[in-house]
Design brief:
Distance between the termini: 18 Å
Strand content: 15-25%
Radius of gyration: 14 Å
Number of helices: 6
CATH architecture: 2-Layer Sandwich
Number of domains: 1
Largest sheet: 6 strands, mixed
Length: about 150
Amino acid sequence: MNHPDSVLKFSLGLNGLSFEIGNQHIQLEQGLGSIDSKSIGHGVIDELAIEKMIYFIEEIIESKPLRNLKISGVAVTSDAAMTQLSELFFSAKKQISRIELEHGFNDFIERLSYYTSQVAPDQLYIFTYFVFIREMMHHLRVEEIHVT
């Protein structure tokens, strides 16, 4: 059983990111919107945009107090974007393992134009969210995400 103090609660918004473990709170002013503005040219998500996203996201994850957090392997969120991703890639599951996420991510990369055409232009940030979660799973050793 995971210790509740080591479960990562997170929320990734357009204007800020928030992470919480036990009594540690990390609030970052930089949100998905700023990653988007630096990565996506002309409203098109292509492989170059994703490479840029990964770069900026890794910078955020590696440079902040985030990497010092002791995470049990479980992360929890109630973000609407996570629910939307789960519907798009994971049959609306409420628990997504790292392996499932990686399969979904690979599918996304292989079929970029298909997936980006499935959402409204003002909803493209959910793909930035997807990239962020994938990088979070790698760098912060998250094994499973629970959608509440």
